[in-house]
Design goal:
This protein is 70% helix and 0% strand. It is mostly helical. The protein has one domain.
Length: 347
């Protein structure tokens, strides 16, 4: 099998989804559609870099492009799309936790691998993660949808830093490095302060996409509440914090308990399209996260196929979602493929 084939297919699918999302955004102006379009476009650029390298060999510009688009920015922008989609919900608490975990995980990554030239960057990433997490938490607590804009500011600033770092960081000759056994690229040539941007952006984005998809499915599925909790900000703050901890346990427990009701609703054709849609998106996020994690730990063989599986699952999730695609048409034209879709037709 040609080395360019799998990443080429991945890039083609990712670009197709990005174009379709841009077309939907042009008409409906939903922020989540634009963020997802950017994320899928970056997904395509990263995979296209691998495809070109598979066909003609790696070069320094190609290596820098692959790292920036594929290893740093893609998960963050896809996760941001989920944040905008769920801006009116209490998902801001989970997104705040993602930023906090990203800062902690970045610091622990440096402790574990001791990347050269990291300097004080692990502590700076931790501080940024804490600050953004507190800001998002506060806005969510006061039931303000602006928490998603704060998240966007964090992603945009991180993206600007990523562009600067990936473009300007000195790389020793030949300007790229691949796994000698599989030929897959690794980030080993970048300085530590650049490499640490990957876990910071990836943990935030991938966890947001994964948890957000499951949370969205939970919100729109028929529920059986085995464990009760309340996130009403009007309650005493200590009681609120206690309920917040309980909620972290209650949501997955109630989700599992509600699956039989969701299956019954699916059979009856009444299940909200977001439920199957977001489950597919969660699967895609998990596949990408798994492939990236294995690549970071030196297991590079599944990297390309994991990305292909990821984009296929995310594509399926977007197509199933009536909120994302309320109609199918040839992008940037008025040529429709079928009629407009409404909830109740997706089941």
């Amino acid at each position: 099998m040609p080395e360019w084939l799998i990443p080429g297919l991945t890039a083609g699918l990712a670009f197709a989804v990005a174009i379709a999302l841009l077309d939907q955004w042009q008409e409906r102006r939903r922020s989540f559609q634009l963020a997802w379009a950017v994320g899928m476009g970056l997904f395509g650029i990263g995979s296209a870099s691998e495809a070109i390298a598979g066909a003609s060999g790696w070069s320094e510009p190609l290596y820098r492009t692959w790292y920036l688009a594929g290893a740093v920015l893609t998960p963050a922008w896809l996760g941001l799309g989920t944040a905008f989609l769920l801006a009116r919900t209490r998902f801001g608490y989970a997104y705040a936790a993602c930023f906090l975990l990203a800062g902690i995980f970045t610091l622990l990554t440096q402790r574990r691998y001791d990347y050269p030239d990291a300097g004080v960057s692990p502590f700076l990433y931790l501080i940024v993660g804490i600050v953004v997490a507190l800001a998002v938490f506060g806005e969510t607590y006061f039931q303000n949808e602006r928490w998603a804009r704060i998240a966007a500011l964090g992603v945009i600033v991180g993206s600007i830093a990523g562009v600067a770092f990936a473009t300007l960081a000195p790389l020793p000759s030949p300007g790229y490095v691949t796994d000698p056994a599989t030929g897959q690229p690794t980030a080993a040539l970048f300085p530590g302060y650049v490499r640490l941007l990957t876990p910071f952006m990836n943990v935030t984005g991938a966890f947001s996409l994964l948890f957000g998809a499951l949370f969205s499915a939970y919100v729109f599925m028929p529920k059986r509440r085995v464990l009760a909790y309340s996130l009403d900000p009007g309650q005493p703050f200590d009681q609120f914090l206690f309920n917040l901890v309980i909620g972290a346990v209650a949501v997955p427990v109630n989700f599992v308990a509600s699956i039989p009701l969701a299956v019954r609703s699916l059979r009856q054709g009444t299940l909200h399209s977001r439920v199957p849609s977001t489950i597919f998106i969660a699967g895609g996020a998990f596949a990408a996260l798994l492939g990236d994690s294995l690549n970071r730990f030196g297991v590079t063989a599944p990297f390309a196929i994991a990305k292909l599986i990821s984009v296929v699952l995310i594509l399926a999730g977007f197509v199933l979602s009536i909120e994302t695609f309320h109609e199918f048409r040839i992008p940037f034209t008025r040529v429709r493929i079928g009629g407009a879709r409404r909830e109740g037709e997706a089941g």
